User: Fold these one by one.
Assistant:
Number 1:
Amino acid sequence: MSWSLNIGKIFGIRFRIHVTFLLLVLFIFASVANQHGFQRGLLAALFICAVFACVLIHEIGHSLIARRFGKEAKSITLLPIGGVATIEEMPEKPTQEIAMSLVGPLINLAIAAILYVIVGRWTGISVPTVQPDSSRSFLAGLIGINIVLAIFNLIPAFPMDGGRVLRGLLAMTMDYVTATSIAVAVGQILAMLFIFYGVFYNWWIAIIGLFLYIGAGGEKQQVILKSVLHEVAASEAMTTTFRTLRPDEPISRALEHFYHGCQDDFPVVGEAGIEGILTRDRILAAIHDRGVNVPVSEIMDRDFSSVTPRAPLDEIYRKSLAGGKTAVAVIDDNTVKGMLCLDGISRFLAVRAALSHPGSRV
Ligand SMILES: [Zn+2]
């Protein structure tokens, strides 16, 4: 995410803070200090940092459990609206998804319980406040916020943790796509109730409802796309009319094909089979730096991706195309049978959608 400052690593997970979060802290400090003096301003700024430290621990919880299930936790970013843990992909097993999602809210409840013990022994809890004027109200406020965070995250609507718990529970008795559709429907009904209530009583609740409604729809599309891609084999979506290059040919050869065809990426095939892929970016960079007579073998991508014709598209997408590769070679019996690229996959999906809903526009 741009506008995020790299702070460092926690448990090997990159930790970033969005610039707007720092602005929020500054804004809170300035507005409270302006009304109640420097000390109260400082306490309010510290308080908001403490709240986000709790959010950070919540996200670390998700990330560490994901890692236990073999999913890579890439980064955690703190935004003014909360934390975002970027995890390679959600665990497939329902029990794993439930465990991973529940750990966040449980951590907030645990923090609240620990603080309660500290404050309880002290002088008892007063009404939680977001603008503390003493260390006691500071801790009491943190207890309140952690309870609210736990409850808020357990709302059974995507993208909240509760939405994932509900989907996991449903997926124990039905397929993943149906479970997601039901969980999304429950989430959207709740979101609409939030919006309806919020419009009359509290605009913040309406905004949260809107945020939930949009998040739920996005999750459904992702899951459906993933399940569609999972059903399709590389051989069904690959381009079968393509030109190949020999390693000793100059790139001017590639340029000819480039001008007169729609092909962007060329498999480079030698005596023993495919040796690399020459991508459009590499062709253009080489012409700029070294002219058109450089042999293809010197600029092709030797670290290319290849799959068998039976490989499912979701795996190809996840492992290669999402990671920056522009093309994947489909190889059978040491022969290039076809080429796959993002454009080709989206063309394939568009045609498939048109065929399954005749009459509707793609
Ligand atoms: Zn969470």
Note: Residues 38-68 form the longest helix (31 residues).
Number 2:
Amino acid sequence: MKAPKVINTYCPKCNAKTPHTVSIYRKGKESSLRRGARHHEWELHGYGGQKFPEQKRKAKTTTKQLLKLKCRQCGYTLDRLGVRLRKLELA
Ligand SMILES: [Zn+2]
């Protein structure tokens, strides 16, 4: 699906309908020194193997992708949850 580069929508900070710049949300790199990552690494350490079942066969072939909308007047950013899609691109 193609999403427009600019969407006119409600901004809660301006309390009005304003033009928003659209970008696609992408997950950032996970830090290996975070609390959960260190704990997970420690759980896998030593004798005993994997601590929870690994998901091998996924039922879903598509993902829900987020649109990040940034207000052009105040800079407030809001996320808009999309429908399930194979591919999302900006038109
Ligand atoms: Zn705004």
Note: Residues 11, 13-14, 18, 71, 73-74, 76 surround zinc ion (CB under 6 Å).
Number 3:
Amino acid sequence: MDCNRCEGEAIMHAAYSGAHLCEHHFRESVEKRVRRRVRRDDLVPHDVTPDDPLTWVVGLSGGKDSVVLTRILHDTFAEDPRIELVGLTIHEGIEGYRDKSLEACVDLAEELDIRHEVVSYEEEFGIRMDDVVEDDPENMAACAYCGVFRRDLLSTYAEDLDADLLLTGHNLDDEAQTALMNFLEGDVAQMAKHFDASLGPLSERGDQEEFVPRAKPLRDVPEKEVALYAHVEDLPAHITECPHASEAYRGEIQQLLYDLEENHPGTRHSILSGYEELAGIVADDRAGESEDDGDGPDLRECAECGSTTTREVCRKCGLLESLA
Ligand SMILES: [Zn+2]
Ligand SMILES: [Zn+2]
């Protein structure tokens, strides 16, 4: 099969678009989608100048998604003095797994010549995920603990690094899964939060100064294409899944989406675009409500660590307490 855009041999076929692309045009198409998302989400406001560049912190796990995102952002902005990229890697304390992917991160940061910071649960919290899984005082999936600690460190360090933006490598499959899970759980509040946290033009995000805004510019690219891009570009990505991965519900949703996509190509795209539109409406609606009656969630400072929370003690500190 020939490439749709040249005489070359196609290395991939995307059922959702009907495209057959050669290696060159496939790479170009992935890069274009990331750059278009950067533009549409207005991640580089017009008034940014080289004298006061933006610091973009990329959550760099060493998996294919974050490695591909970092590489494309680097290539896009290599000549642009308005953007400074910093890779931020979190070591969870998972024997073997994270050490290998940390190597991938170090290799990539060296290759691209970008600043790279590594923080660990062990140094920050005095815990390792391998031990957390053993103890499991809250009787939860490993990912539930890990997600709380990772989010906390990402935002803390994004703030410490004076980040203007925190970017993560979520792909189309990740985002469609999350969207569908929120739908199926009927979690409208989570939809609004999702929108605030990661979507929509930055300029319209309003009064969130205490949080570093989030962005997910890889979210138009399906997982398989991210993997193929990492492969053809020979990027130092670590492919193995986390040994503690145990999100059973997400696994079911993933399988459901594979089947739907197989029979109805384009399903992931339509789920995500419908979700984003709806999440925007919900977020607007909630913003209006809290202006009217001041009835938003009561935010306060965690008694232990001072981070913003709706409770006496934040979730992270609660978990650390039960692990102590
Ligand atoms: Zn071609
Ligand atoms: Zn706390």
Note: Residues 47-293 form a domain with the Rossmann fold fold (CATH 3.40.50.620).
Number 4:
Amino acid sequence: MRILITGAAGYIGSHAVVGLQRQGHEVQGLDDFRAGRPDAPEHLGVPFHVLDAGDEEAIFALLREESFDCVQHFAADVHVSASVGAPIVTWENNVGTTTRLLSAVRRASVPKFVLSSTCAVLGDSGAALVREDDPVCPMSPYGSTKAACERLLEEEVSAAASAGAPFSAAVLRYFNVCGAGAGPFGEPIAGSGHDVRLSQVLLDVVQGRRDHITIFGTDYATPDGTCVRDYIHVDDVVAAHSIVGDRLKSGEFCRYHVGTGKSTSVYEAVEAARRASSHPIPVILGNRRPGDADSVMADSSRLQALGWTPGHLSFDSMFASALNHRGPQ
Ligand SMILES: NC(=O)c1ccc[n+]([C@@H]2O[C@H](COP(=O)([O-])OP(=O)(O)OC[C@H]3O[C@@H](n4cnc5c(N)ncnc54)[C@H](O)[C@@H]3O)[C@@H](O)[C@H]2O)c1
């Protein structure tokens, strides 16, 4: 397939460019570098379009020119805390951009669309393993924007079917992505000012960029009191994109959970990072952050039924892949 990847200069999008290319697809990247790596085009070695994914006319011209079979949409504002402080900015980029991109996709008759979504649409369900049809209940503006994009996409597939247009789409809800693999870049260095992933903070400590980790809340309803999450390796996310994109049937809309179903608490992740690095990891205990659920775990049986199996099952192995990654700084 000819695939356009938006957000191709970002963490997951850059892995997807390499991973989907290795699966034999003809891939092109798109990013406007508002958050990604400006050196991505030189390291990815695929045709690269420096464009705003929400510039409908420019995207329409590109889609017509290149006759893509599929758009895989990774571009988004991804920081939960930034979204809490400035919801309009996040809604404009996530929902506004996706709306205009989808309009261009529709006008250019691109038949397939795959959206990056997140377990942040789910909130704190209390269920042991969350399924795709469980109710959504976002706990942040970021989660709300992704839930809105999912709904828009579902409605667009339905409208296209009514109009007899062969359009299909899938939503992949990733749980907590970490690790490094196919892409040229490892996990992004954590910046200050925004929430960052736990694995990034742990990498910062063991690589000497910060001197401790703060654990936000130790009184959650979990076995050791710290938040429990389902971590998924970035290459396993890309493998899900490949399988789902290949299998999409005309007129179909489907959601998939992308996680291992294995729980890791914050304390367990800190211990795993100590084991992998043999480096001391000083811990400071802090207060809870707004919007953090006790435990969010994926039931990914729908995705596994397509033949997807995660290659990395433990946080140890995911963290080690990031720690041992060698690539451009
Ligand atoms: N990282 C995670 O743990 C995680 C978990 C669940 C879902 N997701 C989703 O996966 C996707 C990728 O996340 P990531 O961690 O790689 O983020 P990232 O910030 O590393 O990458 C996002 C990329 O999109 C680009 N971008 C944003 N808006 C754009 C626009 N309007 N036009 C062109 N480019 C634009 C940015 O410049 C950046 O390169 C996002 O949709 C995110 O919501 C990520």
Note: Residues 217 and 287 are 5 Å apart (CA to CA).
